[in-house]
Design brief:
Layout (H helix, E strand, L loop, with lengths): L2 E3 L3 H14 L30 E9 L9 E2 L3 E5 L4 E6 L5 E6 L9 E3 L2 E5 L4 E6 L5 E6 L9 E4 L6 E6 L4 E6 L5 E6 L9 E3 L3 E5 L4 E6 L5 E6 L9 E3 L2 E5 L5 E5 L5 E5 L11 E2 L3 E5 L4 E6 L5 E6 L9 E2 L3 E5 L4 E6 L5 E6 L9 E3 L2 E5 L4 E8 L3
Antiparallel strand pairs: 1-10, 2-33, 3-4, 4-5, 5-6, 7-8, 8-9, 9-10, 11-12, 12-13, 13-14, 15-16, 16-17, 17-18, 19-20, 20-21, 21-22, 23-24, 24-25, 25-26, 27-28, 28-29, 29-30, 31-32, 32-33
């Protein structure tokens, strides 16, 4: 049975009231990369302006192995580690502001919303922390490891702000964002790995290890549709204009009409799995593969536009700006490509495998690396 634990209701209410007074609409994350994949639909888009010259600004050493990805406010970066430490790092100089210790690893990227940081752990808990101090506000226990980030939405009828998260207990859980109280949970037939996607502000979309793609109602958790996707899904679904785009652990990237369940297309160039989540622009789907390639796929037809070859598999999920694709590779490089052509614009050789998704802000890229370090780059225009 799921359990809710609150160490301080009065503190939480006071904190929330302060957040509302100080930041009625423009919360601390109004500028920054505060969700894994950028937005609730997980499209992997950034409105940031980037230069094409990378300069290392600072490095923060966690002293641990990193599988998590960075999220940021306008002042801080946040990332979890395999020892269960969540680090808050100052963007201006790379110094640690605070740290929080969970019982086990934090592999899932955090979520930042209204001054609260939500972080899942392999100890089965979702933790809610004050993003300024790291103080625990509440924690919610599932019955399995939490490997994917949480997402936030507003329920269409009740207008509650909610947090939705998947777990290895085979459930997707919907919680009250302020209190951590469970509002509903939806059962699947196997582990839920990725981030639940919010579609049209009224549906939750996700896949998992039962080889199904689910669409459920955000309000009450009732199933709308379930579609077989031929193999387990390790990553998350990107949604645009009612179509969900996802790669599976066999060899396919697929597009589905989410309400009808009809497959729009299937892209299968090679027999390699996809652990990367796609990014979606107006006309292109971008995704990394274990064939060491970054694939650009026509969004309407499912045909390949171009493929960029790195020297290592690409589990890092790409982030796109108006002109660039940003991602890391297990070959130890951070890449910037032309979104239109796939041509390499620049790269930076860190030297250790990168499976994390980069956080992309105006003039800055921040990425975690499996060497346990967080790298912050500033970008400038080449002369």
């Amino acid at each position: 049975m799921s359990r809710f634990i609150s160490p301080g209701s009065f503190y939480l209410l006071g904190t929330m009231a302060l957040c509302l007074i100080v930041n009625p609409a423009n919360s601390v994350e109004s500028s920054g990369w505060h969700r894994h994949r950028g937005d609730a639909a997980l499209q992997g888009k950034s409105t940031a302006t980037l230069g094409t010259k990378l300069t290392l600004d600072w490095v923060f050493d966690t002293g641990d192995f990193l599988k998590s990805s960075v999220v940021t406010s306008i002042t801080h970066a946040y990332i979890g580690s395999d020892r269960g430490v969540l680090h808050a790092i100052k963007l201006k100089d790379g110094k640690e502001q605070w740290r929080f210790k969970a019982e086990m690893a934090i592999e899932a990227p955090p979520l930042l919303h209204n001054g609260i940081l939500y972080a899942g752990s392999t100890d089965s808990y979702l933790y809610a922390l004050d993003s300024r101090s790291g103080k625990l506000l509440w924690k919610y226990e599932t019955e399995g490891e939490i490997m994917g980030a949480a997402n936030q939405a507003i329920r269409p009828e009740s207008k509650d702000s909610v947090i939705v998260v998947g777990s290895y207990d085979n459930f997707v859980h919907c919680l009250d964002a302020k209190t951590g109280k469970n509002l509903w949970k939806f059962e699947t037939q196997n582990y839920v790995n990725g981030v639940p996607t919010i579609f049209d502000q009224q549906y939750v979309v996700f896949g998992g290890c039962d080889s199904m793609l689910y669409v459920i109602n955000l309000e009450d958790g009732e199933e709308v549709s379930a579609v077989e996707v031929e193999a387990p899904i390790a990553a998350s679904v990107a949604v645009s204009d009612g179509v969900g785009y996802v790669g599976n652990m066999d060899r396919a990237v697929m597009a589905f009409n989410l309400l009808s369940g009809k497959k729009v297309w299937s892209y299968q160039p090679k027999s390699f799995p996809y652990f990367s989540s796609p990014a979606v622009s107006q006309d292109t789907v971008f995704i990394g593969g274990r064939d060491k390639g970054l694939h650009a796929i026509d969004r309407l037809s499912g045909k390949q536009k171009w493929r960029f070859s790195s020297r290592g598999r690409i589990d890092s999920s790409p982030v796109i700006t108006e002109e660039l694709v940003v991602f890391g590779s297990m070959d130890g490089k951070l890449y910037l490509l032309s979104a239109a052509t796939g041509k390499e614009i620049t790269s930076y050789e860190i030297g250790e495998s990168i499976s994390s998704t980069p956080a992309v802000l105006n003039g800055k890229i921040i990425v975690g690396c499996e060497d346990g370090k967080v790298y912050a780059f500033r970008t400038e225009s080449k002369e």
